């Protein structure tokens, strides 16, 4: 029987939307990542990139980063979010 981490990893599709993440995601690391987050006192989340074709910033990454940050804060973690200048105003609006 698969562990909960293995079950979740089976649901993660790094090729979704052909974003070029196939070589970046390594199955078998989720449990290690969770352990690192659990033991960390401080966490840095990096988000935001410009979509060159539109000359606008992404919209799902910053919101996801804020959601993860909120969850980590409930676990008493100090969370820092790094983003691009174009996303700072967007994220400040989301925090309201």
Report what the structure shows.
There is one protein chain. With 96 residues, this protein is an alpha+beta fold. The protein has 2 domains: 1-38, no CATH class; 40-96, no CATH class. It is built from 4 helices and 4 strands, in the order ααβββαβα. It has helices at 4-11, 30-39, 60-74, 85-95; strands spanning 42-46, 50-51, 56-57, 78-82. A two-stranded parallel sheet has the order 1-4. Strands 2-3 form a two-stranded antiparallel ribbon.
Number of helices: 4
Morphology call: flat
Proportion in β-strands: 5-15%
Number of structurally distinct domains: 2
- SS content category: alpha+beta
* Rg result: 15 Å
- Low-pLDDT regions: none
Number of β-strand runs: 4
What about the largest sheet?
2 strands, parallel
Major β-sheet strand ordering: 1-4
Task: Furnish the topology, listing elements before pairings.
Elements: H1 4-11, H2 30-39, E1 42-46, E2 50-51, E3 56-57, H3 60-74, E4 78-82, H4 85-95
Parallel strand pairs: 1-4
Antiparallel strand pairs: 2-3
């Amino acid at each position: 029987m698969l562990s909960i981490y293995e079950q979740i990893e089976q649901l993660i599709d790094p090729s979704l939307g052909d974003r070029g993440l196939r070589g970046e995601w390594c199955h078998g690391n989720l449990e290690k990542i969770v352990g690192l987050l659990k033991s960390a006192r401080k966490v840095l989340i990096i988000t935001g990139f410009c979509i060159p074709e539109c000359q606008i910033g992404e919209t799902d990454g910053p919101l996801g980063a804020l959601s993860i940050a909120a969850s980590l804060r409930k676990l008493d973690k100090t969370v820092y979010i790094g983003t691009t200048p174009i996303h700072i105003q967007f994220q400040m609006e989301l925090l309201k």
